[in-house]
Specification:
The protein is an alpha/beta fold. Helix content is 38%, strand content 16%. Strand 6 and strand 7 form a beta hairpin.
């Protein structure tokens, strides 16, 4: 915090909230690329495939591409903090996993960094590029016979079960707990590494995946100290947990803002910070959004709902919360209405010609437009599009007229 205050005093204009500007539109449109699916499907096989995908947004209304840097807690670029996705494996749970690893390994061996490729191409297209971190994306150790967690979960995850979330009965979960300094430092290491690239900011994706705290010893001790009650006698969603979680996660977000300020000062540019939250569950996740906005740490806030798309909620309270902060508020759309990622067993049956999965059902262009009009009428500054690469459905979304609210 001391370094943060010093830097703020030196260059307040550099560190003030600066939401990305809309691109060819009245409203801000942000698209998230998960940095894995297109490698899994074979759409990204070379650096030029990534480059062309980013350049395709040049004449659209997309202003920001978020490039997710990890799957589980392994990176899709040659990292000094974690391992490359799939490294150390010879057998893979799905054909696409094998293809993704082979592509990423070939690129890494050639000295190609996917984040740098994506960022450079975004800038060539006139877009901003945010590196996106899935805040807790690891998988259960026994998933699909253990194949996928070996593929995606980092060495840090495997070596430190003592840092995992614990439930009220003492059972260890597969989620890492942000109650531990070591977990927070591991995540900060990933973000510091990303901030060294020529990116425009960082996105903290809290929707991938909760929970972030449980009944592990630091949390149980804090609860007992504050309330004089044994933590195991209350539920996970007891509101008395909220301030304890707020304190830890706010300290973490402050450090993220600080590392961005430090990196930005060296580059003489503002590096933005955004978060994606659930409109109802964010307090139980430790996301003290009101404080983060009041402190001026956020450049854009994405508000959606955890789960499949098609949900409906009023974004106006978040617009009001952000008023005067300089932060843009985006309605977060999840494109998928029905469908799921194929399992290892499904992939085996499909390869043998014994199974055909129905296609995913996605939001239509008309549904996007109707929903955009409602969000804009409630004061949203734009849209955040997740799990959707269909550029044709984005056309004109940034100029949709706000619906008349009756």
């Amino acid at each position: 915090m001391k370094h943060f205050l010093i830097l703020w005093a030196l260059a307040p204009a550099l560190f003030a909230a600066q939401p990305p500007k809309p691109h060819n539109a009245a409203k801000l449109i942000v698209v998230n690329d998960d940095g894995f699916s297109a490698f899994h499907s074979g759409r990204y096989k070379t650096a030029d495939d990534i480059r062309q995908a980013m350049l395709a947004f040049k004449n659209t209304q997309v202003a920001v591409t978020e490039w997710c840097t990890i799957a589980g807690s392994r990176a899709n670029y040659p990292s000094k903090v974690t391992q490359l996705i799939g490294d150390g494996m010879t057998e893979f749970p799905r054909r696409g996993d094998k293809l993704a690893h082979e592509t990423l390994k070939r690129m890494a061996d050639a000295g190609e960094n996917t984040l740098k490729i994506a960022a450079d191409a975004c800038h060539e297209a006139g877009l901003a590029c945010y590196a996106s971190l899935r805040m807790n994306g690891d998988y259960p150790a026994d998933m699909w016979g253990g194949g996928f967690p070996k593929f995606a979960n980092s060495t840090f995850w495997w070596q430190h079960p003592e840092f995992h979330v614990v439930d009220a009965k003492g059972k260890t979960s597969y989620r890492l707990s942000f109650a531990y300094l070591e977990v927070r430092e591991f995540k900060l290491g990933l973000l510091r590494e990303a901030a060294q690239q020529d990116i425009d900011g960082i996105n903290l994706d809290f929707q991938r995946h909760p929970v972030f705290f449980g009944f592990e010893q630091p949390m149980a001790d804090a609860f007992k100290s504050k309330y004089g009650i044994d933590a195991t006698t209350v539920t996970q969603d007891d509101p008395r947990w909220v301030p304890l979680r707020y304190a830890l996660m706010t300290a973490f977000v402050c450090e993220v803002r600080e590392l961005l300020n430090e990196a930005g000062k060296l580059k003489n540019k503002h590096l933005g910070l955004s978060v994606r939250i659930d409109w109802q569950k964010y307090p139980t996740w430790g996301c003290d959004v009101e404080t983060w906005l009041r402190e001026g740490w956020l450049d854009y806030l994405v508000v959606g709902q955890y789960g499949l798309g098609g949900y409906d909620f009023d974004i106006a309270p978040f617009v009001k919360m952000a008023h005067g902060s300089g932060c843009a508020v985006l309605f977060g759309e999840e494109a998928t209405l029905k469908g799921h990622d194929r399992t290892a067993e499904e992939d085996r049956l499909i390869a043998a010609g014994k199974l055909t999965l129905p296609p995913h059902v996605l939001l239509t262009r008309e549904e996007y437009q109707t929903r955009a009009a409602k969000a804009f009428a409630a004061g949203a500054d734009g849209l955040h599009l997740f799990n959707d690469g269909r550029k044709e459905v984005f056309k004109g979304l940034g100029d949709v007229k706000a619906a008349v609210q009756r």
